[in-house]
């Protein structure tokens, strides 16, 4: 996959296109991108995904506290896995925000031979989100390309969306996140030094430092898969303030215990996939009581 960062890098070739933020690359996104890839291949065209970054809601001041389901590198890896030819991570700034849908599409058509534009039912492009599906379909007819609109992907009775996934994570519903994403929710980070309490009680934990922009599940204890050097390990992860030891702490820690693994891995990169929530974080009366619960968590995981 070719990863570009400006329209000027595009080649003037026959192109199928989709545009969006694609935060999470969830099942709805996958539906569109899979059709894009397959259709472009059949039409002997390039499959181009344009992904805006940062999130428009952040740039426009609507969601300054927004946490991302996928950081840029994570998103690129997932989109590459779907088999597209070109991903463009397009900077979203005030200039782009001020363009009409017609102006932005004209900039694209100045660079490629646009044949088809695939969009989601709730997609809107351009200043004040004027370019909804109906508008873009009419614009395509005028400008010489076809527009195909996809309905929502539904699980249960709910349409899959990035907002719905963030809400599920905020409530600790990682099993629901799996249903929406089509895979476990994941976060990665570097293993940093903690206070060493886990090793003192013979249950060593890896403290993980991740991006402050990354969405983190609700405080609690989770069964996870941990990936280190490409190898998969069963793990129990605690997200929270560790109230038994630091009752006045406000900033949450992410610490994980890899089952049947004792090596020191400070400075290494660790990826966690959240499979199920085991329990809430709670304060214990003693370290011994905490140990009993930790062993129960490990057995359950």
From TrEMBL:
Q: In which pathway does it act?
A: Cofactor biosynthesis; FAD biosynthesis; FAD from FMN: step 1/1; Cofactor biosynthesis; FMN biosynthesis; FMN from riboflavin (ATP route): step 1/1
Per the UniProt entry, the Enzyme Commission number(s) are 2.7.1.26, 2.7.7.2
Q: Which reaction does it catalyse?
A: riboflavin + ATP = FMN + ADP + H(+); FMN + ATP + H(+) = FAD + diphosphate
Quick check: keyword Flavoprotein in the entry?
A: yes
Which top-level group of life is the source organism from?
Answer: Bacteria
Q: Which UniProt keywords apply?
A: ATP-binding, FAD, Flavoprotein, FMN, Kinase, Multifunctional enzyme, Nucleotide-binding, Nucleotidyltransferase, Transferase
Example GO biological process: FAD biosynthetic process
Cite the Riboflavin kinase domain residue spans from the record: 180-301
What is one Pfam family matched by this protein?
A: FAD_syn
* Alphabetized GO MF terms: ATP binding; FMN adenylyltransferase activity; riboflavin kinase activity
Q: Does the keyword Transferase apply?
A: yes
Which family, according to the similarity comment? Belongs to the RibF family.
Kindly provide the name given to this protein in its UniProt entry: Bifunctional riboflavin kinase/FMN adenylyltransferase
Native source organism of the sequence: Candidatus Desulfolinea nitratireducens
